[in-house]
Amino acid sequence: MTVDALTDVAGVRVGHATRVGGGWLTGTTVVLAPEGGAVAAVDVRGGGPGTKETDALDPRNVVQRVEAVVLTGGSAYGLDAASGVMAWLEERGRGVSVGPDPAHVVPVVPAACVFDLGRGGDFRARPDAATGRAAVEAAAATGPGAPVPQGCVGAGTGAVLGPMKGGVGSASVVLDSGVTVAALVVANAVGSALDPETGVLYGELFQGRVEYPEDRVRDAARRRLAESAARNAPPPLNTTLAVVATDAELTKAQAQKLAGTAHDGIARAVRPVHLLNDGDTVFTLATGAHPLPADRPLALNDILAAGADMVTRAIVRAVRAAESVKTGADEGWPSYTELYGVRE
Fold first, then answer.
1. Most buried of 27, 28, 153, 304 (most Cβ within 10 A)?
2. Which helix (H) or strand (E) holds 51?
3. Calpha distance 99→40 (Å, rounded)
4. Smallest Cα–Cα separation from 240: which of 181, 180, 316?
5. Are 196 and 30 in contact (CB under 8 A)?
6. By the 8 A CB rule, do 161 and 187 touch?
7. How many Cα neighbours within 13 Å face the side chain of 8?
8. How far apart are CA 16 and CA 14, in angstroms?
C-alpha cells in the first residue's frame, strides 16, 4: 500500500514543526533517512540560495551518505534548525564516524531555507535549533510509510506563490522496474503557479487533466490576486525547495544528475523560476534497495524523468492543500481553493 508521498520510499520519514500565531508563521520540515543514511546530492539553481552543508554533497568530496535533510523557513536565520537535528542524531550515534569510539560521529545535515520573514507579523519569529529537534522527533515518531501532512505545515507554513498561499506537497510513483521515486516540495516562489487568465495550475497541464473555472470565478479570483499582490508586494524574496528520494542504488554522481533534472519539474509548475531572488534547491536521497541493471546504463533515464514529474505533481498538491492565511484584518494570502473553489 502506498500513500503517494515521499515516505513511499522505504525507510524515509518526514516530520514537521509548525509555528503559527503570536507573530509566527513559519516552521521546519525534516526528511529522515533510514539508519545508516542514504546517498545524497544537491543542485542549486536559484540566484539567492540559503543553504548549509551542500558542498559536502559534491561527488568529488568524501561524505557519501547523510542521515537527514532539513528544509526550513526563516531565511538564513532558520538554518539554525539543522543544529537541533545534528544534536538529535549525535545522541543516537548517527553520522560520519571520526574516531574509535562509536559515539564519535559528525552528523552531516544538509539544509536549505525559504524566505518567510515577517509573514506572521514578527520579523524575529523564526525557526531555531529547538524547532529542528521538534521536526526530527516528529519524523522519528512516525511509522513506516506514514502519510505526509501537506499544505501549510512545517517549512511550508509561511510559504507563498506570488500573491497566493503556498505550502508543502508530496507525490510518488512506482516504476515498471519496481523502483520507487518520490518528491516532497516546499512551494514558495516569486513566480506564479497558475495562469491568471484561465485559473489553471501550470503543473496540471502536464498531468493530462485540466478543469477550467467559470468566467465569474476567474474574474473574482483575478481581483483578489491583484489586491493580494498590492498588499504583499515587498519584498519579492522566496524559494522553492525539494527533496527527491528513490530506493534505487545510485552513485553520488547519478544522484546529482537526478537533482538537476528534477528542477525541470519546478519549471513546469512555476513561472518564472530560478530568478536572482529565488533560492531554488533540490536535494536527492537514494537508499540503494534496488540496484540498477549493469547491462542497461540508460536505466537511470526512467528515474530522472520520474523525479521531475513527481516534483511537478508535488507542487500542484502543495497549492491545492494550502489554506488561506490572514495575519490581520485586511492582510494575508488567499489559497487556490478559496479563489477557485476546486479540489482534487
1. 28
2. strand 51-52
3. 23
4. 316
5. no
6. yes
7. 22
8. 7
Span 248-307, pLDDT tens digits: 999 999 999 999 999 999 999 999 999 888 999 999 999 999 999 888 889 999 999 999
d(CA 228, CA 86): 38
Closest C-alpha among 86, 9, 21, 2 to residue 307: 9
Hey, which bits of 213-337 come out as E strands?
241-248, 281-290
* Cell 514558495, located at residue: 188
- Estimate to the nearest angstrom the gap between the alpha carbon of 180 and the chain centroid: 18
> Is residue 109 classed exposed, middle or buried when 0-12, 13-18 and 19+ CB atoms within 10 A define those classes?
buried
Contact between 310 and 179 under an 8 Å Cβ cutoff? The reply is no
Among 92, 75, 74, 67, CA closest to 19: 74
Lowest mean pLDDT, pick from 74-83, 87-96, 224-233: 224-233
Local confidence band at 328 (pLDDT 50, 70, 90 cut-offs): low
165's grid cell: 498561499
**b/e sequence 263-273, b meaning 16+ C-beta within 10 Å:** bbbbbbbbeeb
DSSP 1-22: ---SSGGGSTT-EEEEEEEEET
C-alpha distances (whole Å) from 314 to each of 61, 137, 241 are 30, 24, 11
Query: Is the Cβ–Cβ distance between 167 and 187 less than 8 Å?
Result: yes
Q: Model pTM?
A: 0.94
Q: How far is CA 194 from the centre of its chain?
A: 19
User: Residue 287: CA atoms inside 13 Å, Cβ hemisphere, count?
Assistant: 24
Task: Output the CA–CA distances (angstroms, integers) from residue 281 to 43, 54, 126, 218, 273, in the order listed.
Answer: 6, 10, 20, 32, 11
- Give the chain's count of helices (H) and strands (E): 7, 15
Q: Which helix (H) or strand (E) holds 96?
A: strand 96-97
